[in-house]
Specification:
Structural class: mainly alpha
Number of strands: 0
Helix content: over 70%
Largest sheet: none
């Protein structure tokens, strides 16, 4: 058994100091690309523990990089990107937005934005993409009704994170399930029962705080065929179909519908899969998170080999003595990493291996650990003013992210609901980790 070694965590600390330091220094938390920060951390990890040869260290890095769950996660990222690019090019996003606006009664303006955001983000698997798609509509509703723009945008951001946290094709769901080795459908079922109360209360709050009527102008045409790929992906994933099969099926269906409706030219089929219709989606949009995931796995491999993971586990053991305490520890761990990195997917990739060891030690089922990782990183990602979600929403509205904070009902309630489930709920115990495992 490896000895506990707090210095083995130095690479992670270096990453956080460099990443946060550059954000503060340049007043931009995206001035330092995450991949550069992790490469610096990897170099620091290699410089540690001179008793081990370079070849031994390289072996620890590459073995963890090539671990089955890491590679599966990366492949799913690529396929999710292909589906995203294809369905967007086929007109699925526009049709879904227009369909929602066409069927909603005009008396539930802000609550309607929340519901549409929930559906679109669950279908698209991206909170930022949902915010970008719905922000102009939120601004228009505010201008036509006099409802506070921050309230309208708060509904959009809240709905966007609902689906990002639950979607079968969200990179956070993929990362959470792969790092914990559980099925997406099991994580979804565990996750939805935790966050559904928060979503219902948020919907009521948006209804109470808004009121009034609105009338949307402009073209609201939609084609139900273009919405079909989203429904197929959602239903297929919930039915337990293999995620690879679901994403391939969704991509092929999107291409067929896109060509049939004239939205995709036959000669552009492969281009939209790779880059999307505007170059901002598709397979290439997943390159960064795929490479980051591999590099992070390498860093964690050395941290683990040097005793860093054992130190974290030892620290948690000294402060918690029950499965509930361990779940709180996982929540705190994932929260701190997300606050530090401003990226919930990266936070899950970084904290996932440690969380898995904690869950095995205290008999917490993988589905619960995956849900907690996704929930608490989503909570903080949606309320930190320097996160991509609030920055995109605030920019569209022409305000600062701070203006939106009072109206972010859902992420706050999601965190409260999760803590209540941890402290007062029951969870079937998983087999504890033994020396032979």
């Amino acid at each position: 058994m490896k000895k506990e070694n707090p210095w083995a965590l130095l690479p992670i600390a270096v990453f956080l100091v460099v990443f946060i330091g550059c954000g503060i220094l340049f007043e931009d938390f995206y001035a330092m690309p995450a991949i550069v920060g992790f490469l610096i951390a990897l170099v620091v990890a290699f410089l540690q523990n001179p008793k081990r040869s370079f070849a031994e260290k390289l072996s620890s890095v590459t073995q963890n990089m090539g671990e089955e769950n890491v590679m599966i996660m990366c492949l799913v990222f690529v396929l999710a990107g292909a589906f995203s690019g294809a369905v967007k090019a086929a007109g699925g996003v526009d049709s879904t937005v227009n369909f929602g606006l066409s069927i909603l009664p005009p008396q539930i303006a802000v609550a309607g934005l929340f519901l549409i955001g929930c559906f679109i983000s669950t279908a698209m698997g991206t909170s930022v993409g949902t915010i970008v798609a719905l922000a102009p509509i939120a601004v228009g509703i505010s201008e036509k009704t006099g409802i506070a723009g921050a309230l309208c945008m708060g509904a959009v951001v809240s709905g966007a994170m609902f689906g990002d946290n639950l979607s079968m094709i969200s990179d956070t769901t993929i990362a959470a399930t792969r790092t914990q080795g559980c099925e997406m459908k099991d994580k979804f079922r565990e996750n939805i029962r935790i966050v559904l109360p928060a979503a219902i209360v948020s919907l009521i709050l948006f209804l109470v705080f808004s009121g009034g009527e609105y009338h949307v102008t402009g073209d609201l045409s939609y084609n139900l065929l273009q919405i079909l790929p989203y429904l197929v992906v959602l239903v297929g994933a919930l039915a337990g179909l293999n995620v690879f099969l679901v994403l391939v099926l969704g991509t092929v269906l999107s291409i067929v519908i896109g060509v049939a409706t004239g939205a995709i030219a036959p000669q552009d089929i492969f281009t939209v899969i790779a880059n999307g219709p505007d170059g901002g989606s598709g397979v290439t949009s997943m390159y960064d998170i795929t490479v980051i995931s591999i590099v992070v796995a390498g860093v964690i491999g050395l941290v683990k080999a040097n005793g860093g993971i054992d130190f974290v586990l030892g620290a948690i053991k000294r402060h918690v003595h029950s499965p509930k305490g361990a779940q709180v520890g996982i929540a705190v761990l994932s929260s701190l990493v997300d606050i530090s990195t401003a990226n919930n997917t990266i936070a899950i990739v970084m904290s996932g291996p440690i969380a898995k060891d904690i869950s095995q030690e205290y008999g917490i089922p993988p589905r619960r650990t995956a849900a907690l990782l996704d929930i608490f990183t989503s909570v903080w990602q949606d309320i930190i003013p320097y996160g991509a979600q609030l920055l995109a929403a605030a920019t569209a509205l022409g305000v600062t992210p701070i203006h939106l904070l009072p109206y972010l009902f859902y992420p706050v309630l999601m965190g409260v609901s999760a803590l209540c489930f941890i402290l007062f709920g029951k969870v079937s115990a998983a087999p504890k980790k033994t020396a032979g495992n």
